[in-house]
Amino acid sequence: MNRQLSPLGRIYPLVALVAGLLVALTGRAAPLPGPLVETDWLARNLSNVVILDVRADQESFIKKARGGIAGMQACGAGGGGGGGSTVSGHIPGAVFMPWDQVRADSKEGNTMLIGELPRDRTFERWMSRSGVDKGSAVVIAGLGEYPHDMVQAARLYWTLKYFGHDNVAILNGGTAKWAAEDREMEYGRARPRRGGFKAGPGRPELLAATADVQKAVDGKVQLLDVRAMDLYLGLTHHRKFVPAHAKGHIPTAKNLPFTLLVDTMGPAATFYTPEQIRQVSGVLGIAPASPTIVYCETGGQASLGWFVFHELLGNRNVSIYDGSMNEWGADDARPVVTMKIE
Questions:
Q1: Is the torsion defined by CA of 92, 98, 101, 104 positive or negative?
Q2: 30: Cβ–Cβ under 8 A, 6 or more apart, which residues?
Q3: Cα-atom radius of gyration of the chain, to the nearest Å?
Q4: Quick one: pLDDT band at residue 27, thresholds 50, 70, 90?
Q5: Of these four, 43, 68, 159, 292, which has the most CB atoms within 10 Å of its CB?
Q6: Which parts of 181-228 fold into alpha helices (H)?
Q7: Is the pLDDT of residue 136 over 90?
Q8: Are 256 and 226 in contact (CB under 8 A)?
Q9: What's the rounded Cα separation, in Å, for the pair 271 and 259?
Q10: 237-269 per-position pLDDT tens digit
């Protein structure tokens, strides 16, 4: 028997079809397994996530390198001064996120603060242009060759978290690990659809101000300096960011160089395990579970320290001093310590 649908009956299947298409196109909101995902997991979930590829060089994102094997390093991910090939191309579906758009410069009095947290509306536009919606599952793929590549990934991760987007993870080893495993790569410019990302009001508990650091010097909160030891001790300084009178570190700060957080001896820079990081922290007199403010020169490397302590070790009382030594050193009345390990 042929049964003719009423106009209303014909509309419901159409609505369901449209809704299904919208979920397929814009949903991408699968729950992530944790703050860190592996390449195997990503390979199974490429169609369920938005991949943001954060790096400084767009050419390497677009073009295929001549010769060599993309993603492989002759002397490990750290390069070791060797002549290994560099990563070219990107994970299928990934969207290029320029490193210089993840952070923004600002002026505090007469001091230019480098690489600060961007304004909420600016960040909102960047994320929307990259195809990120309010509920999108976002996987951040750093270039993955060097520790600084993971710094860039962690900085974007922290910024998303600060503005209220929790469904986000970092790809362990980044694009270098994906390529080193001989997985499919894409080349050319990405053309993402426009998303509807909305920045929240910001989470102040993730951001420390100079006044908070001054209180921490009194010993109530652990200060963690994640710069290289030569900067921590005051042997040298980045003249672009820190004046000569501010060489050294903030009083009471412990030193855990960010290069001790990732293993660079394989084909890609991957995070050490939480247990290894706890062991290293113990050797250096650092308490992983204590309230902590992390800093560096301008807040970038501090993002990697925050990610490890807050997300991987589960210490929910960790914040970033975004101005770091760039801001602390702007006032020559603020104390610094040289040639001393706290």
A1: positive
A2: 45, 48, 49, 137
A3: 22
A4: very low
A5: 292
A6: 210-215
A7: yes
A8: yes
A9: 10
A10: 998 899 899 999 999 999 999 999 999 999 999
Distance CA 60, CA 86 (A): 8
User: Residue 208, CB half-sphere, CA atoms under 13 Å: how many?
Assistant: 31
Q: What angle do CA 112, 115, 118 make, to 5 degrees?
A: 105
Taking the C-alpha atoms of residue 312 and residue 305, their distance in angstroms, rounded to an integer, is 10
Strands 318-321 and 207-208: parallel
| CATH 3.40.250.10 domain residues, the chain | 28-180, 204-328
CATH 3.40.50.300 fits 28-180, yes or no: no
C-alpha 238, offset from chain centre: 22
Query: SS3 for 139?
Result: strand
Mapped to the 3 state alphabet, what secondary structure does 76-96 carry? ECCCCCCCCCCCCCECCCCEE
First to last CA, the chain: 86
- Give me the helices (H) in 64-221, please: 99-102, 120-129, 147-162, 174-180, 210-215
CATH number given to 204-328: 3.40.250.10
Q: Determine which helix (DSSP H) or strand (DSSP E) holds 110, and give its type and residue range.
A: none
Contacts of 147 (CB under 8 A, 6+ apart): 78, 258, 259, 261, 262, 264, 269, 304
Helix, strand or coil for residue 197? coil
The SS3 assignment for 3 reads coil
pLDDT for 81 beyond 70: no
Name the pTM for this structure. Answer: 0.88
Q: SS3 for 230-278, per residue?
A: HHHHCCCCCCCCCCHHHCCECCCCEECCHHHCEECCCCCCEECCHHHHH
Q: Rounded to an integer, what is the distance from CA 134 to the centroid of its chain? A: 19
In this structure, the strands spanning 292-295 and 318-321 are parallel
- 10 Å CB burial of residue 1 (0-12, 13-18, 19+) is exposed
